[in-house]
Amino acid sequence: MELVKKIELLIEKYFAAETTVAEEQELRNYFSQTDVAPHLQAYQPMFVYFSTEQQESYSKTVSLKPRRKKYLAWISVAAMIAIVVSVWVANPFQPNNLGTYEDPEIAFQETQKALEFLSANLNLGIEEIGHLKEFEQAKNKILKNN
Predict the structure, then answer these.
(1) How far is CA 52 from CA 28, 37, 48, in A?
(2) pTM over 0.85
(3) pLDDT at residue 140 is higher than 50
(4) pLDDT tens digits for 48-98?
(5) What would the mean pLDDT of 119-135 be, rounded to a whole number?
(6) What is the pLDDT of residue 68?
(7) Mean pLDDT of all residues in the chain?
(8) How far apart are CA 16 and CA 74, in angstroms?
(9) How far apart are alpha carbons 133 and 124 in whole angstroms?
(10) One-character DSSP codes across the chain
(11) Which of 23, 45, 51, 111 is 20 to 30 A from 63 via CA?
């Protein structure tokens, strides 16, 4: 009876992804026996399957030859052409327009606007990094290494 309680606790831990390799081996050993508690027999095929499939192996050799990716070079060339064309279309040969202001007050106000815009976007980026950290923590809980 004590063994059955221990197995029930291990099953709960197993489905919560909190078991160790030794505990999982104990579960496989228990369910490979013929005398399993009646209310736990539903789990027996799963653990027996895991035990038998663990013994299988792939015997053929796998060649890991790197493939040359010629299309990547062309993608980078196309990207550079797109950047050059977009810069030329946005600012076609305007040497006199240097983006300077005659009035220092207007220059100061425009600089403040630009820095506020930059600050707002940086704050959004910092929030996104926080979301990425939360995602990373959740992923590590799900894909826990044993």
Answers:
(1) 10, 21, 6
(2) no
(3) yes
(4) 787 777 778 778 887 777 766 666 667 878 888 888 888 877 765 555 555
(5) 73
(6) 66
(7) 79
(8) 48
(9) 14
(10) -HHHHHHHHHHHHHHTT---HHHHHHHHHHHTSS---GGGGGGHHHHHHHHHHHT----S----PPPP-HHHHHHHHHHHHHHHHHHHHHS-S-TT-----SSHHHHHHHHHHHHHHHHHHHHHHHHHHHHHHHHHHHHHHHT---
(11) 51
**The pLDDT value given to residue 51:** 74
Joined together, the tokens standing for residue 146 give 């044993």
Six-digit token string for 89:
């279309």
Q: Counting beta carbons within 10 angstroms of the beta carbon of residue 31, is it exposed (0 to 12), middle (13 to 18) or buried (19 or more)? A: buried
Q: What angle do CA 7, 29, 51 make, to 5 degrees?
A: 120
User: Do the beta carbons of residue 31 and residue 44 sit within 8 Å?
Assistant: yes
Phi first, then psi, for residue 32 (nearest 5°) are: -85, -10
